Amino acid sequence: MGLMNSTETVADEKAVIAAAEQALADIAAVRSEVAKVIFGQERVVENTLLALLSGGHALLVGVPGLAKTKLVTTLGSVLGLDSSRIQFTPDLMPSDILGSEVMDQDDSGRRSFRFVKGPVFAQLLMADEINRASPRTQSALLQSMQEYHITVAGQRYDLPSPFHVLATQNPLEQEGTYPLPEAQLDRFLLQVDVLYPELVAERQILLETTSSAEAKARGVIDAARLQEIQALIRQMPVSDKVVDAILQLVRSARPGHGNATTDKNVAWGPGPRAGQSLMLTARARALYQGRLAPSLDDVYALAEPVLQHRMALTFAARAEGMSVRDVIAGLVRQARG
């Protein structure tokens, strides 16, 4: 009996390794297809894809004109997801996102209500400039991100599966915007900072995007395959060393947990969801980079995108010109020892 169990385990392990190797090949194909259309910005592409491979949502923060919209539409094509886009404005209503009931009248004059689905019923939803809409409209979207269904007039409607939101935010113009509350920021698996491109990439953008034959991305996988990869990522083994590093890093970012620098500079720190996000995205990063198990490097590389929107500095630290990124970089340095 014992022998059979060990044989089964070996067969199981072989099956998992074979599945992981197939996933590695698919992810590599996705990467190279996206690179045909999005030049440079490797870290942005990587972190956004990690959020999707982990089954989560991402917040892309950057000034206008850095191809955030193009990235989202490209990812939709390459991953075979049905996508839609909402431009958030101050007068956008919750029903503009969720959908609304309309009254129909049949031939005999009988009236009935029919639900017309809004743009949220997509597998990949781009929420452009999410901080421009009123808190009521933001919360309608953020609730659907959390619960994967919506309720209109007491009736529940499930959202498509998989369901991912990639929201964008312009960090500059704060006038007439409604910053996302902390509890809602926590629903984003990662915050991805989109910076200006490097010189070489910008040169390529200039040449490629102003010619008559602009590159288009083709589909590499479909929604069902993406869900298989997401399920596989959740099954990847994580060593105790990596789990301990995640716990230590997340806890060191909370005031009152024995870290003197954090106590001095951080007003409030990340909750348990930050640790869950690091566990998932570290596994996804390992696969993305062609490895079958996450390492400490994966954890430290993801510290900033996972933690920065889940903590806030004290007034004194901000007055000194410190940023959340500086604090996280310091914590990672301490953790690396």
From TrEMBL:
Q: Which residues form the ATPase AAA-3 domain?
A: 57-190
Matching PANTHER family, A to Z?
MAGNESIUM-CHELATASE SUBUNIT CHLD, MOXR FAMILY PROTEIN
- Name the Pfam families for this protein: AAA_3, AAA_lid_2
Enzyme class label: hydrolase
Keywords for this entry?
Hydrolase
Domain of life from the UniProt record:
Bacteria
Positions the record marks as coiled coil are none
Q: What is this protein called?
A: MoxR-like ATPase
Please tell me the species this chain comes from: Pseudorhizobium flavum
Documented EC number(s): 3.6.3.-
InterPro entries cross-referenced by the UniProt entry: ATPase_AAA-3, CbbQ/NirQ/NorQ/GpvN, ChlI/MoxR_AAA_lid, P-loop_NTPase
> What is an example of a GO molecular function annotated in this UniProt entry?
ATP hydrolysis activity
| Stretch forming the signal peptide | none
Q: Where is the ChlI/MoxR AAA lid domain?
A: 263-328
